[in-house]
Amino acid sequence: MRSARRALLCAFVGSLFALPVVAQPQADTTVTWRSYSRTGTAQVRVYPGPPDDEETHTIVIRELAENQGPSTVDDFQYLADLVGRQLGINPTAAYWVLYWGGFSFEGADPDAGKALFLRATFNRTESGNLSSPYWDVISKTDVRELTDRRWRE
Q: Does some domain include residue 131?
């Protein structure tokens, strides 16, 4: 009886290690910025790039219902530059994902399952400033690909 329990426990522990690893963010923080008349707030999560490219990151910015300032889209160019400076990331070497879900709207069900993801990339202008972002609508699967790259075999 005791050996059967031990075998069952070993099989269970072995199966835990066979499960896929989910990427954990390198940083998970709240960023605030001052717009013309109000202060904006957003959640920022930074994910590492693939093992052979330490400079590339994926930054997921969640639009929060508590944000009483401008939308992240309104100040996105400034926000990307600010986050890059605060976290030591080159904004042009990152994939930026703006994420809206139930958590983005007061009174909405945060677990409703509906979501919108926009991916943005930047270049630098001749003067060294960030260009306007290049936008793409992406899926939840695309976001998982961008955030789990380091963990794929």
A: yes
